[in-house]
Amino acid sequence: MKKYLIIANWKMTPNSSKEATELLSATASAAKKIRNVKVVVCPPFVYLRLFSKNSKVGLGGQDVFWEEAGSYTGEISAKMLKSVGVQYVIIGHSERRRLGETNEMINRKIKQAFKYGLKVIFCVGEFERDESENYLQFVKEEVIKGLEQISAKLFKNLIVAYEPIWAISSAKKFGKGFFHPDTPENAFQMSTYIKRVIVSAFSKNAGSVPILYGGSVDAKNAADFLVKGNVDGLLVGRTSWNAKEFGELLKNVNKI
Ligand code: 13P
């Protein structure tokens, strides 16, 4: 049976270790009942140790630095992540790109994460979907530059998350609440496009790299993205911060 990968990106929430423990245990018990989903939680670094004993969900970091160790104030290494049981790491999230992260920095981070056997959730996505379709070239460039000079043999640990920036709940673009998702039909087109870019730029065997969709995913639209959008999983922000809503999302996916 196909197992969808559902990644909970907690971003910079919750505010305390107590709340993180509660959210984790509620998330893990919701995940335990779902047969067709692998859930991975990516909490802020300071909460990673709370997860060490929880095997119901996978554990991911939200970023990693490209150097091994040394004088890099505020950074976290791939080796450190491994040492606390982390298996996955998000790299190149648009909220980090907005703070100045470039394709070249992302490429170095991906190389370092692969070196330590971490599974990389590599985020790409355009600012806007313009009519002349420049966004296709933009996403293509992000994909190619992010993966430059990386052996396609390492792509067994690669997951690409297509997150159109305008669709992320933090974008508040349309001024009407948080959620303004893409459509499953567009997610389908973009995931097919990204797969094609990877195959033609890197390796004809890279067609099996899983592609996720992220951006205003909630309990109502999750199953549609997976079925009509034909993606391999979802990268979920805001909805994953509330165990009840995230549990509803998982239940709906379980009905597929
Ligand atoms: P939202 O689900 O809050 O739109 O966030 C998407 C995201 O950025 C996940 O990485």
Automatic annotation (TrEMBL):
The keyword Translocase does not apply. It is an enzyme of class 5 (isomerase). It comes from the Bacteria. One of its GO terms (molecular function) is triose-phosphate isomerase activity. The keyword Plastid does not apply. It is found in: Cytoplasm. GO terms for cellular component: cytosol. Its EC number is 5.3.1.1. One of its GO terms (biological process) is gluconeogenesis. Its main location: cytoplasm. This is Triosephosphate isomerase. It comes from Candidatus Tagabacteria bacterium CG03_land_8_20_14_0_80_41_22.
